[in-house]
Amino acid sequence: MPPAHEDVALHTFLRGDPATQLAWLTERGLPPATLLALHNACAQRCFFCAGPGTVSVPDRERTPRAAGLAQLAARPEGVTRLMIGGNEPTLHPDFPELLRAVRPAGFATVELMTNGADLAANAAEWAALGVVEVIVPLYGVAPASHDGVAGVPSFDHVVAGLDAAAAAGIRVSVHTLLLRRTLNELAALNDLVRARWRTRLGVALLRDKGSFAFAAEAPPFAAAVAALTAIREAARPLGIGTPPCLPTHPEPPPLVADLYFRSQALAFGPGCDGCTARERCAGVVVAYAGEVVALGGAGRTR
Ligand code: SF4
């Protein structure tokens, strides 16, 4: 069973073989693809993620090379789209070999979810091997704010990596978390992403994993709404796993980012009563369920 803060159905997808993953996506009207999820140690120390399962992964718990190759070899007929994710897949010792195996296995394109720290040195090579999109988090507009979240100096590497990816012809997708400590930079980050990489920022809500001081890090829902509302509507970030009562742009997020953030358990709260968006809403991350306010309906007011 997954941890309580994770969604059981999404867990089935993440742990599934390619045929299971394809069926899971098809059932939900999502495009055909499969995911290669690599479990290994990450070099960053993001406060919401760093723990025994991500910082120091013993060799015996790392995704074996054979399992990665088997996942590629099991590509369902007709599926040419591969997503790669995990803790930090680019640091898996077998990542280069696995990436070289992608095209021979029959995949045409790779969408890579990475922290971006190693993009600058590798973007051109990865593009040649099939990477068409990188999905990268950026937590602020300066080293102090980004690195404060990431736990290690990485802002300059990530920005250089995104530049290199764009120069190599890779589509760049940038997302951030709505955090109490960086909410005042949201508009500037949105402007940076739009101006520098000609793309739309994605935003997600923090989930409470019980491993950090959630109340100290998560802004009130109303503050997140206000920060997004302050950005003109046409320029707003797109929401990743967020409910319609958070004012974001309706464009869908990158599929692998959407799936990653769908892994958080969602719920409805008392404020959802009478919400006009409820039929198209999957809920909000559990920790925020008590704060949402119905859209256009008779829900409670705060
Ligand atoms: S149903 Fe609840 S979580 Fe969904 S949009 Fe409405 S108020 Fe927000």
Structure summary:
The chain contains twelve helices and nine strands. By secondary structure, the chain is of the alpha/beta class. A seven-stranded parallel β-sheet has the order 1-2-3-4-5-6-7, sandwiched between helices. A two-stranded antiparallel sheet has the order 8-9.
Descriptive report:
Strand 2, helix 5 (95-102) and strand 3 (109-113) form a beta-alpha-beta unit. The chain has 2 domains: 8-262, Aldolase class I (TIM Barrel); 265-302, no CATH class. The protein has 302 residues and is an alpha/beta fold. The model is unreliable at 298-302 (pLDDT under 50). It has helices spanning 8-15, 18-27, 52-55, 65-73, 95-102, 119-128, 143-150, 155-167, 186-197, 214-217, 221-229, 255-262; strands spanning 34-38, 81-86, 109-113, 131-137, 171-178, 202-205, 238-239, 266-267, 284-285. The strands form 2 sheets. It has a 7-stranded parallel β-sheet, with helices on both faces. A two-stranded antiparallel sheet has the order 8-9. It is built from 12 helices and 9 strands. The two termini are 36 Å apart. The longest helix is centred in the middle third of the chain and has 13 residues, at 155-167. It binds iron/sulfur cluster.
